[in-house]
Every structure is written in C-alpha cells, then in structure tokens.
Design a protein that fits this description.
about 450 residues; alpha+beta; UDP-n-acetylglucosamine1-carboxyvinyl-transferase, Chain; 4-stranded mixed sheet; 23 strands; globular
Length: about 450
C-alpha cells in the first residue's frame, strides 16, 4: 500500500510512530497556517475525471486521504503531477486516458469520498463499478440518495454483493431531483454527474456547505453552467464537454475551528493564516458564546481564550449554516473544561459520540442521553491512554491532551493522518510538548 501511495503522491511521508505522546499544560503561541479543506479537495480531485484536459489544484492539504485518492485516480489511468512551494502543495491531474474499470476495492474501502467516482465516471464514460465505500465508523451513511438521483438521470444501477454497478450507455439526462435530506455527498455526486448530462438538472433540498460551492466554482471554471450556489436549489445545464481549469482549494473551516479550540483550552494565542470565521456558519457565534475570541489581523485570524474564561453552552449540530458535525467532538473537548454545564446534541450521525468514553478516561464529566451529551465542566483534565476512533474524535483527544495535566498517549493516528496536514509538527512549532513514538 505504501508503494502505491508514494507512486501516486510522492510527497506523502507519514510521520513514524503509532502513538502520540502529549504532555499538556503548555500554552500554544505562534502561527499555525490553515490548510486547504479536506472536505473540499477530494470532490475537486474527482472533478478532473470529467475532462481530458488538465485540471490544476492549488492549496492542496498534504494528508492521507489525498494520497489515497491520488492512488485511486492513478489506477483509473490518471497522471498526477505534483509541485510543492512555499505557497503550498499543488497537483495537476490529466485524465485523458481514463479507464473506468481500474478501481481498487482496497483503496475504496479506506475512504467515504470514493463514492463520488460514481457520478463522474457515469458522466464521462457511461459506466462505473464501485465497491461500497468505507470511511469513519460514525453511523449509517447509506448511498441510497446518490443511487436514486443517478437513476432519475437515466442510469441503470444495481447493487450486488457489496458492489455498485451502474451504466448509462446513452449518457445521462437532466432530471428534477429532490433529496430527502440535504446530503453533502449526494449533492456533490449529482452535481458531478449533471454537468455532462443532456439537458437541465435541478437538485432540490441540496446541501449548502461551502465545500459544495467550491466544487461548483471549479466546475464553472471548467465550462460548466451551475446556478444557485449557496442555496437549497442548484440548477445545472449540462455541457457536451468540459475544459481544464486552475482552482485554489478553499481553507479548511474544520481545521480552523479545531485549532481555535486548542488555543482556548491551553490559554494560548494562535495566529491562523487563511482561517475564515465566515465559513464557520452558526459555529462562529457558538465560539464567541463559549469564550473564544477571534480577531482579524494583517497576518490572519488570531484565536485566544476570552478574559472571563470559558463558559458552557448548548449546541445542536445541523446542515450548513448550522453547527458542523465535524466540529462537535473538538468543541466537546473544550466544553469539558468550561465553567457550568453544556448540552451537545448530535442530529447528523448517530454514532458520533465515540470520543465521549475517551474524554471520560481523562476526567471529563459527560453523560450521554440518546443523541445528547450532557457535559459538566471540570477544572482540569488528566492525561490518560486513549484511542482516536475517527478523524474528528482523534483531533478532540489531541485538544484534550494539550489542555490536560500530565501525559496523554493517543493511539489511532491513521485518523489524524487522514484529516490533518502535518498537525503534530505544526503544533510543536507553536510550543506543544508533543511527539510520535513507536
């Protein structure tokens, strides 16, 4: 696996060691540049399959998910050309020799975003055969909405033995599609399919996350015709062909919020270049209510704990512009040390409280009642041996370890590698006592 990743993403050099040791109590002070968004770059990379011309992406985060998807695209016949400068990582993707039968099941099983290959391959090649995708174990994330939308666009879709087989030999056609829920993945998949469909496609009850608007902006730069960006109704007029494009990935709002939590729990002060408060949606007001201050400077947004300290609040996750489910775990780690009580309600994924038991190991006072976690703030967390069970749970435990007394030993580092670009090294440069060990 490592050889295939290095062939497709030669920059991928995972840190050695499978245990992260954190000695808490050190205020984080310094500059932590926010990377391109993990949740935006993956569909953007898939969009390159829609054209035989070159698609160049700048501000690409150097994480494991990007490396895995690069390997998947290479197996499909794409050429990946990487460059790295002081401005960050860039990739130029050439899909002029696309081979839709080259999908690797082991790679697909490693990431949820591989489901987006369905829409792009059907649109470009008229066929796709994809094992059911993997990803974080955070609850049921069926692809029924994806398949129903593709069927509405004229595709024949069968699910047999854990493999999706889809064909559209005469091409896809425009359709009026209403999603039962504003699913981010389904919206992206149908958007990728619709830009080359015959006629106009309307996606109603579409998700509104900034990463979808970023994907649409790239497709528009390629010659696609998409309107309704940022609303619950997208209209896509299909084109016969798309050109190449150059596009910069928008900053990662989840990494930005995660690092704001780290600054606040350590009573430090972090400058977060490229971070954007406006991308946080409702979470921006929640951070202020908790006692996290943001201030704009010429060098970037500065995050710090407010002088009165941290206060408990109630939050409920929801589709954008609601409070992002991906920020729920990092914020819960912060609320574990806030004065008073908090109620954290999770409405998106039913298994997204797997970090609670690990935080309790560190002295947090948290009780789960159905889809709500009741948090009573404690003065200080205590270091412990814990395991990260998904990308955001692992990040939450890093935050908890940074603010805790004593030593925290964190396993499950593949999850951190998947979602964050050189997190450990960047934290160390800001004063964290943090190291990876065998």
């Amino acid at each position: 696996m490592n050889a295939s990743l290095l062939a497709a993403a030669p920059w991928w050099r995972p840190d050695t060691g499978d245990t992260l040791v954190i000695r808490g109590g050190q205020p984080l002070v310094g500059t932590y540049p926010i990377s391109g968004a993990k949740n935006a770059v993956l569909p953007l990379m898939v969009s390159a399959l829609l054209t035989p011309h070159l698609v160049t992406l700048h501000n690409v985060p150097a994480n494991l998910d990007v490396a895995v998807l690069s390997s998947l695209l290479q197996r499909l016949g794409c050429e990946m050309h990487w460059s790295s400068t002081s401005a960050g990582l860039s990739v130029t993707i050439s899909a002029d020799r696309l081979e839709p039968r080259g999908i690797d099941g082991d790679l697909v099983a490693r990431m949820r975003a591989s489901v987006l290959l369905l829409g792009a391959l059907l649109a470009r090649c008229g066929e796709a055969r994809l094992p059911l995708p993997g990803g974080d174990a955070i609850g049921r994330r069926a692809i029924d909405f994806h398949l129903a939308g593709l069927r509405a666009m004229g595709a024949t879709v069968k699910l047999d033995g854990g493999v999706v087989q889809a064909t559209a030999p005469a091409g896809l056609r425009g359709a009026d599609i209403r999603l039962p829920l504003p699913s981010v993945g389904a919206t992206e998949n149908l958007l990728l399919a619709a830009v080359l469909a015959d006629g106009t496609t309307t996606i109603r009850n579409a998700a509104r996350e900034p990463e979808i608007a970023d994907l649409a902006a790239c497709l528009i730069a390629m010659g696609g015709k998409v309107s309704g960006l940022g609303t619950h109704e997208l209209s896509i007029e299909g084109a016969q062909r798309l050109a190449g494009a150059v596009h910069a990935v928008l900053p990662d709002r989840i990494e930005f919020g995660t690092l704001a939590c780290a600054a606040a729990i350590t009573d430090g002060e972090l400058c977060l270049p490229h971070g954007r408060v406006d991308l946080l949606g409702a979470a921006g007001a929640s951070f202020n209510a908790m006692g996290v201050d943001f201030s704009e400077t010429p060098d970037g947004v500065v995050a710090r704990r407010a002088r009165p300290g941290l206060s408990g609040i109630d939050i409920t996750t929801g589709p954008y512009p609601g409070f992002a489910t991906d920020l729920q775990a990092p914020v819960m780690a912060l609320l574990a040390t806030a004065a008073g009580a908090s109620a954290v309600s999770e409405t998106i994924f039913e298994q997204r409280f797997r970090h609670v038991d690990e935080l309790v190991r560190m002295g947090a006072s948290i009780a789960v009642r159905g889809r709500t976690a009741l948090v009573r703030g404690v003065d200080r967390l205590q270091g412990a041996a814990v395991i990260g069970t998904d990308v955001r749970a692992a990040a939450a435990l890093v935050i908890a370890g940074l603010g805790a007394c004593g030593e925290t030993r964190l396993g499950g580092l593949d999850h951190l590698d998947r979602g964050y670009d050189r997190l450990v090294r960047k934290l160390a440069l800001c004063g964290a006592d943090i190291v990876r060990l065998p």
